[in-house]
Amino acid sequence: MQAKKRYLILFSAGACLILLLYFGGMQTPLSKSNNRRDDRSLDGHHGSPQWHHFSGSLQPFSPWDQMETEEYNVHISPRQKRDVISGVYNGKRCRMDSCFDFSLCKTNGFKVYVYPQQKGEKMSESYQNILSSIEASRFYTSDPGQACLFVLSLDTLDRDILSPQYVHNLRTKVQNLHLWNNGKNHLIFNLYSGTWPDYTEDLGFDFGQAMLAKASIGTENFRPNFDVSIPLFGKDHPSAGGERGYLKYNSIPPYRKYVLVFKGKRYLTGIGSDTRNALYHVHNSEDVVLLTTCKHGKDWQKHKDARLHDYCHEMLHNSTFCLVPRGRRLGSFRFLEALQAACVPVILSNGWEMPFSEIIHWNTAAVIGDERLLLQIPSTVRSIHQDNILSLRQQTQFLWEAYFSSVERIVLTTLEIIHDRVLQQAARSNLMWNSLPGGLYSLPQYSSYLGDFPFHYAKLGIKPRPKFTAIIHAVTPLVSQSQPILKLLVAVAKSQHCVQVIILWNCDKPLPAKHRWPATAVPVLVIDGESKVMSSRFLPYDTIPTDAVLSLDEDTVLSTTEVDFAFTVWQSFPERIVGYPARSHFWDSNKERWGYTSKWTNDYSMVLTGAAIYHRYYHYLYTSYLPASLRGLVDQLSNCEDILMNFLVSAVTKLPPIKVTQKKQYKETMMVQTSRASRWADPDHFAQRQSCMNKFASWFGSMPLVHSNMRLDPVLFKDQVSILRKKYKDIERL
């Protein structure tokens, strides 16, 4: 019996061995083939996928679920499949040195060309605002032969095929552009990509080697130092200017009524639902208020939660932190809303490349969370110290106003980032981008040293040099030795702080002989204005050796003591305009426009450059930053140049100018002595200045001027004490 069992076991083992060898031997060649294919993949080579054969033309898009056969999955990895879906696989390795032609930028610098709009092509208002911002910028050129960068006139913002803004046949239209060149040196703007249910980053056409300025872009598809991540903004986002941040003053401690708030849609299923569907676990109805609604189909307005209406007016402005979870796509409208409201954003969007991440240090203005750790968010934000909260909140306001408050700001920031890549030797530093007034107002062509910019003095702990250069703007011929310009020249040259006087001769008559000018202790340089226009007084002349510039009209009445005192004040406020003649602006509700007034009131918003001191950098900014259209308007009218300079400086600093000691005889005493008297008394001259105010405000997008009622006088000014005890004793005698 035992022998029979042994034979049976032996026979069974032999049969199994035969079957194993038989079936295993048939599979051996396939295994070797697969190993060889895997070896090639490890070396960086990928075998050609065995695509299905179709009868007829290929469809523009084939869902992956129809092609996921076992044979197909053997030949392509999940990473490759994701790249093909996103539409960026072909240009995945593009960088500036491989997909950008720098030679186009060598001759004419960084110039941007916008393709002319084709007849019959629809364009969204948002894309029209983008193109208008480019055309109004200092980079724009209408000549493609001078261009370094090209922007399509075809609307690429919304590439969701279900959207009414979707542009069809874009692939063919782009390929037919005669300057396309496979997208090299092209920039494509996009806000929405992909569609339901996957919302991939597919643009629906091959953009080749073009750069993307894209919202909701993932870190896996983002090409560093090539693409630009931009914020998601709505169609109602201001085209220019925009509202300022809501932080009017700093409250200490910086806590608000709510710790953490959110309002938005709740997704029960699909992409983006993991986080939003779990928010109710964190909501406590007290200081953590997260409001969502799950009824948001095409008729979502019928079902919207009444509590959501109060979000922007109540909770958003009264919360310390605002939750910004991802939506169907990585970006969210809540992001910009939180920045403007000085509500520190708490980002829950794993894999999102933050807007302008190349230049902005987001850890100084936001809390970057992890979607998988949602339940830890309340305890995390509660643990942040109040000093850090105050710093975060202040930085949100700076970033909002500098880079995100309007479509124009977003577009200009995008162009400046690319500009810095192209002209690497003149690129801005991280401090320029992340501190006031921001990178848009810090032109690196002026200087690469932060200490040359007046608004960085305080951060660097330095002071301006204690000398100034005077520039006297002359427009009338020199016919008498008693003319005001000669008296002014002598008084300014006597100042202990003056190193040079420049006379800008914008008169139609020839230059006076050298002996006609009085002898002075400092050099006097007479420059014959070639163009004879008003804007020439603000050119960045190489002959200005000092940080401070004393700008003067030829008929200004100033004593040496007044000049010294004004300069002493300016040394404490080097980023502002400091001077004597003040003017103001107001809103005329009847005419619904801005008004200009020269009345003596208790406040002012401008200090005229006919007798003012400011930093020489503003000469460079006036000439290089402001568009030629505004400077052309000033030259055409021979007026308003002082108003435009005040607009510019206030836009940079967000501060008013500073008026020094009251001086009523600035213009009045000389009205009857100069040929320019008629210009100041002429009603047309005043009407022109009214018109300039509104045209300037239109270009800036808002009114940058700031009112002030502060006036700085010398110590003991008009006090009933001995005149011998006063440093600036001569001022009171005027």
From TrEMBL:
Positions of the Glycosyl transferase domain: 468-717
Please list where the region (Disordered) is annotated: 33-54
Q: Which SUPFAM superfamilies match?
A: Nucleotide-diphospho-sugar transferases
Recorded hits in InterPro entries, A to Z, give:
Exostosin, Exostosin_GT47, GT64_dom, Nucleotide-diphossugar_trans
Write out the entry's keywords from A to Z. Disulfide bond, Endoplasmic reticulum, Glycoprotein, Glycosyltransferase, Manganese, Membrane, Metal-binding, Signal-anchor, Transferase, Transmembrane, Transmembrane helix
What cofactor does this one take? Mn(2+)
What reaction does this enzyme carry out catalytically?
3-O-{[(1->4)-beta-D-GlcA-(1->4)-alpha-D-GlcNAc](n)-(1->4)-beta-D-GlcA-(1->3)-beta-D-Gal-(1->3)-beta-D-Gal-(1->4)-beta-D-Xyl}-L-seryl-[protein] + UDP-N-acetyl-alpha-D-glucosamine = 3-O-{alpha-D-GlcNAc-[(1->4)-beta-D-GlcA-(1->4)-alpha-D-GlcNAc](n)-(1->4)-beta-D-GlcA-(1->3)-beta-D-Gal-(1->3)-beta-D-Gal-(1->4)-beta-D-Xyl}-L-seryl-[protein] + UDP + H(+); 3-O-{alpha-D-GlcNAc-[(1->4)-beta-D-GlcA-(1->4)-alpha-D-GlcNAc](n)-(1->4)-beta-D-GlcA-(1->3)-beta-D-Gal-(1->3)-beta-D-Gal-(1->4)-beta-D-Xyl}-L-seryl-[protein] + UDP-alpha-D-glucuronate = 3-O-{[(1->4)-beta-D-GlcA-(1->4)-alpha-D-GlcNAc](n+1)-(1->4)-beta-D-GlcA-(1->3)-beta-D-Gal-(1->3)-beta-D-Gal-(1->4)-beta-D-Xyl}-L-seryl-[protein] + UDP + H(+)
The record's similarity note reads: Belongs to the glycosyltransferase 47 family.
What protein name is recorded for this chain?
Exostosin glycosyltransferase 1
* Gene this protein is translated from: EXT1
